[in-house]
Write the structure tokens for this entry.
Amino acid sequence: MSITQITIPDLGGANDVEVIELCVAPGDTVAEGDSLIVLETDKASMEIPAPQAGVVKAFHVSEGSTCNVGDLLADMEAEDSAAEPVAKAAPVAEEEPMTAAEPAVDIAPVVAETVAESAPVASAEIDMLVPDLGGASDVEIIELAVAEGDEVAEGDTIVVVETDKASMEIPASAAGKVVSLKVSEGSKVSQGDLMAVIQGTVSAPVAAPVAETPVAATENAPAPAPTAPATPVATPAAPAASAGGKVHAGPAVRMLARELGADLSQVTGTGPKGRILKDDVHAYIKQRLAQPVAPAASGAVIEQPPAIDFSQFGEVEKVKMSKIHKLTAQNMTRSWLNVPHVTQFDHADITELEAFRKGLKAEAEKRGTKVTPLPFMLKACAMALRKFPQFNVSLDNDGEHLIQKHYVNIGVAVDTPAGLVVPVLRDVDKKSIWQLSAEVIEMGAKAKDKKLMPADMQGGCFTISSLGSIGGTAFTPIVNTPEVAILGVSKADMQPRWNGSEFEPRLMMPLSLSYDHRAINGADAARFTAYLGKVLGDIRHLVM
């Protein structure tokens, strides 16, 4: 028996590669080709096999440590059969002395052991196929991330697809040059469809000599049989995850997880001792595509509520949400989780405004329109956005800049049978009350008739959500990102107000201003609502 020191082989030029798994423990018996450890670079994971059979005596690396080519990996006790005589010499009879023509000992070389080394052998065209989409079919391609002639690395995004539940990037399963794209934006694909053809390289095992040791053999002993070249050995199942919660999965499974965007730490393994299999990754992806994914706040994953069978409590009916309803829910969730909301409450005295508005009824009928309080609120908010430009911004995605807007477009939340929509009125600061009244009526009709186009709901700077016709005293509207503020308006009612000498009844309209505290501070919000109260309280300011 002898102790052999196993070192880290060539890692393809990678340095400081992390050890993510010890596949065996000291004292374990392994066969030649069994995996000892699993390493992972930023591109791929690889298993380091045992170059010979034996017993692992000690490891010189640990999970989480880094290593380089030539570093000491482990000590292995092996049965060094190559160093022992193959057979003992047969006893020689004294009456039959050896002759010069019959040598007593013959030196027979042992055929060198071979190990498989990976070497590129040829360039080949590789078909990029659409992977499992969680059971979805005829999924729309919304973006081509590469063009013909581009060089891509393994894992680079080729296309982006979108179902009615989620969008998903499909990466390249190999590196190379994009020869041709077989799909286009707007086309439909299903699992197994050809996306692209990539010109890449393929590898094959190459035999490399390791050692050659002479052994003594007698004339009567059979010569040792030549050792066959080593063949690839199936990797055994890895042990269960360590107490540190390490993921146990082979390189093929890890590659599949990268292709599908699966977080292996969230996948339940069904293989031996909890090892993650390809089927486990597919099952995880199908589950995630089957339900909307809760957005993340500051990198944290929001836990989904547990599923409940409500039928156990009584009769139920499962009603499918409209697409508008689903999108609204997703947008509101994303805004709530990403925006630090604060709401400023105030009142505006609209006694004189209402008297003036009602006095316009006859003129409005001649114009074939109707004047509601909303156009006055639109005009007042437009003036406030000009006076307080910090409300007319969006936060840049780099986290270091604000985008200051020099236009005033205001969205109005409209309740429709299909769900909530927010058409946008443009250049509100440049339009009269009559123009805004006509546009409000036109946009409301288009919203209820489902005739709004995507362009009608884009480019907003600020949003008004009015519940004045329904009721309520106040509420906390959610900011319509990427805007930084939204005004909620509740039902106006008569309240006693002190005029300096007595209380008098005044028509007071509740204002609820929610804002993004990253862009706006509380003092600015208080000034904004106070200014709105001033303008709405004396509409002569609208012409100033």
